[in-house]
Write a structure and sequence with these properties.
single chain; alpha+beta; Nucleotidyltransferase, domain 5; 4 domains; 5-stranded mixed beta sheet; 4-stranded antiparallel beta sheet; Retrotrans_Pao
Amino acid sequence: MFYQVRVPSDERDVLRFLWWEDNDPNKPPKHYRMTAHLFGGVWSPSAANFALQRVAEDNRGNFSDDTVETVKRNFYVDDCLKSVPTEDAAMKLASELRELLTCGRFGLTKWLSNSKEVMKSIPADDWAKSLHEVNLDQEDLPFERTLGVLWDVERDCFTFDVKSVDKPVTKRGVLSTTSSIYDPLGFASPFVLKAKAIFQELCRLKVEWDEELPVDIAAQWHRWLNDLPLLSALTIPRCLRPTSTSCFLSTQLHHFSDASELAYGAVSYIQIGGTCRLVMSKARLAPIKPVSIPRLELLAAVVATELNQHIKQHVEIPIERTFFWTDSTIALQYIKNKHCRFQTFVANRISKIHERSESCQWRHIDSVSNPADDVSRGMTMREILASERWVSGPHFLRHDEEHWPAQPIINDLPDEAEIKRGKEVYAANVTPNQAMKNAVDRLLERYSSWHRLKRATAIVLTNCLGAPQW
């Protein structure tokens, strides 16, 4: 892609390099200049992205708005990810995209779709490499990575590819194994949290990088490793809107937050009619330095609002209503309070929550029904696979709103430690008499600088206070 974007002639001098004439190392090197953007240049992705969007804008009148907006919104460098409701729409979009980008000398290749009919409409030479040996009429579609996330194309779901782990049982091995799980959307965050908690405990105990783990922690680590192969059995549906008729149904976002002494976080679901799907989650370890549970609950609520902003920015589905759920009544009292002033930590978090949400959007849920409890406490893979709630959300979301949890009455704040107390300030105006005023004026007139006056005053006071008492 970078080589398709030319460098302006007046800027090519910054891309000079030396090379042998005619590739002959026996000849003296000559000066050359790059005429196109090169791989490894920190500016190249930005320049290429600008050129891609410029091609779309320059040809907006010749193609549909959907095609132009796909180029502007759905490309990440040279990868395009797009979902459409029907096969006909997909084939039309693929044809127009190829035609549009050809205008800018950009050729789209490595095509892959979960529809075999769509793939048959695209020349086989432009298919993804994983399809070259596949017979579409007889074989299943393969697995493919989309921006690093493994996609089971045939079943149209996201999953994980777990490879055998042979790392030393040390702090370094724990970190290496944990970091090898690429999960940007947090589909397996309750399971990964267990490993992160083990690493944090090693940091708290100040275990060296290549030192053998303590016996009890090593046992926890081996149990986690034994569960790791089961991660490949976890599947998350890719399509958030599963049927063509669902575009006429009410669409809601539900964010659940929770905290414990171990961690805090949030998980988000999208509800369309009677269907509820996991969108993403985020889990963060609690600081090593102890923090009160109410404060951690507020941090979890902030994470929920961050997920809400991120999802609404990137999901191309109109969201009619948004709800935030927490099992902490104290956190709800903080969020819904409009009168008290709080300590700095609490006040800053409440300010962020109010900027990103309305207090009327926040609701209470009991701990047993809260799926964010899995994020804050962690789960084994066996528990995740046995739990329908993690992937599909709480059962009540499949019903009408009148069947949702009843909301308690939020009373006054009981935790007075976080309330900022007002202070009474008394001020007195002192007016010096004329004699005192004249004395001060004489001192100011006698000395040429403030520093000299202070020094002389200090000497006088020192002699007076240090004089012997007879």
